[in-house]
Amino acid sequence: MRIESISPFCPRTTPVRRALAVAIASASASAVALCGCGSDVADPPDYGVYLVFLTLADVQGEVRLPTAECAAQPIRASWLRPFVVGPDLSPDFMDRGAPPFCMAFRWDADGAPNLNAADAGTISIQGHSLPMSVPFSFDPSAAPQQPTSIPSEIDCTRVDNPINGLMSYACNSDPMRMILGDLIADDTAVAISASGGAHIGGFTASNLRAPPTVEPSNGFDLGHIDIDAPLIASWAPTDANTVLIELFAQTVDPMGRPNAFGQVLCMSPSSTGSKAIPSRALEVLPRAEGTNVLFVQTTVVGTNLSTSDEGWGHFMVGAGRGKTGLSCVRPDGTACCGQ
Fold this sequence. Notes:
Elements: E1 2-4, H1 15-26, E2 33-36, E3 51-63, E4 73-85, E5 93-94, E6 101-108, E7 123-126, E8 132-135, E9 148-149, E10 154-160, E11 167-171, E12 176-180, E13 190-194, E14 203-208, E15 231-234, E16 242-252, E17 258-269, E18 274-277, H2 279-283, E19 293-303, E20 306-308, E21 315-318, E22 320-329
Parallel strand pairs: 3-22
Antiparallel strand pairs: 1-14, 2-21, 3-4, 4-12, 5-6, 6-17, 7-10, 7-13, 8-9, 8-12, 10-11, 13-14, 15-18, 16-17, 16-19, 19-22, 20-21
């Protein structure tokens, strides 16, 4: 891991504020996470805790969409989720301000949480493999789409969000894709850089490599998740130093249109072997009701997080791979495919 071209200017953080920034930045579903918060220098006007958190994931698993056959389908997915956040970030649930932690958000189709309104300039990702990819759809009747290649340089830039009127980041690659090959392989070395903006200075992190894929264990079945029952995420021994767990939930109407969303993000040292997901975090997620079914995509990823205190302040960088699965539940509580 190498950190270079780091801006020397950043807001001062108290231990509590630094712990919160570390927690948010570490809440990654996977592969590459970056964050920056302040070192102990004088506070510039109007600065608070600002950080970049970016996830690039390569996860594999199996799903059953509610078709007539309900046949199991292999899935290999990538995520690209840039979060560029400030002190106005307000999770619907957070159990503690430092790892290990869990936090949860909920939103609807008319607007998303304020996760990326701050300014870090252009964020660029390079070094990943270039598999073909197709959009992921929860609509089993959707027509197949022609595969396209993931760009060799993924750029994320700050734009006006027409839904909620906030500034947010958009990338030249869809945020969630089905990939047809390796995105992050054993020899992949990813580099991520930010040009710097009004809130966060420029930096480059390179040679980010992923440990072997983490494996769920002890009955932690990613395709059979009941968010109304106690949930313990568990995993087999791994070379990763940190395990990240994500539950991404959405309700979908009979036409395949999503209307309510929720996300739980948790982090734990890999040595613990398990993480109990707080019931209050699960309560934030939407439920199936009326004619809407509930999909819950659950992902567990092993990653090696590294830190640096050079110049800019505290950074956490990591690369990882993992497993994913999809649950589908009807309003009466039965599984869509009778799993």
